[in-house]
Design brief:
five-stranded parallel beta sheet, five-stranded mixed beta sheet, 8 helices, 34% helix, alpha/beta
Length: 226
């Protein structure tokens, strides 16, 4: 039988190697529109949610170039017909900072993010750039889906519970019941949130959904002794 995997992020995903149940743990609540510059040298997007909210609320803002953290965000922008000028080789703030070089120096930069976004990237950019961090949305728990997920775990109807952001970990809390389900995080930032709750978990080798499934299949194969 295929492993049954509960995906908890906002975007549906398919992989024929597993059976996926999709229950987003987080809803996006857009925040009030702020007064920002009419023109920027760079826009930097850290998620597809930020892309959606920004282009819906700041339609008249002009920009010269765009950077994205993550191939999914980059691909989404290109699907919208928007050219992406810089993407790091790994999909996190640390790699972005390491690889950005001096391309943002002396530039005006708009950084539209979640209200709960880590400040690391903003702090690195502002050393040599004029950066406007705009909190454009905040994640709020989807209590209905979280309760459904807890029922599935209690009834042992899923094999794997995935977490793709620290916000989803916080929303779910520490009632993971790891003796009934295996838990996996996408990357070290989400892993740290799980460690804070002292929840045993695995970590995907790369910060992508495909890597989550790859890691699950690898672990399942090892468990079966194949």
């Amino acid at each position: 039988m295929k492993p049954i995997v509960l995906m908890t992020d906002s975007k549906p995903y398919k992989d024929e190697r597993v059976e996926i149940i999709h229950l987003p743990f987080i809803k996006i609540a857009p925040l009030a529109v702020q007064t920002i510059r009419p023109q920027y040298d760079w826009l930097i997007f850290t998620s597809k949610n930020a892309v959606d909210v920004f282009f819906n609320q700041y339609k008249t803002t002009h920009f010269s170039k765009i950077a994205a953290i993550g191939i999914k965000t980059s691909n989404y922008l290109e699907q919208l017909g928007i050219k992406v000028d810089f993407v790091p080789t790994q999909f996190n703030q640390e790699c972005f900072i390491e690889e950005m070089g001096d391309r943002f120096n002396q530039c005006t930069v708009c950084l539209p993010v979640s209200r709960k976004a880590r400040p690391k990237l903003y702090n690195a950019l502002k050393k040599d750039s004029t950066v406007d961090r705009i909190d454009i949305y905040e994640p709020v728990p989807n209590d209905e889906n979280i309760n459904k997920a807890k029922a599935l775990i209690l009834n042992q109807q899923i094999d794997w519970l995935t977490f793709l952001s620290p916000s989803s970990v916080t929303a779910f809390g520490n009632e993971i019941l790891t003796n009934r389900v295996s838990v996996i995080a996408i990357g070290h930032v989400t892993s740290k949130a799980l460690k804070d709750y002292e929840i045993h978990h695995y970590v995907s080798e790369q910060e992508t959904k495909q890597s989550i499934i790859d890691t699950i299949i690898k672990i399942e194969t090892e468990r079966k002794g194949e």
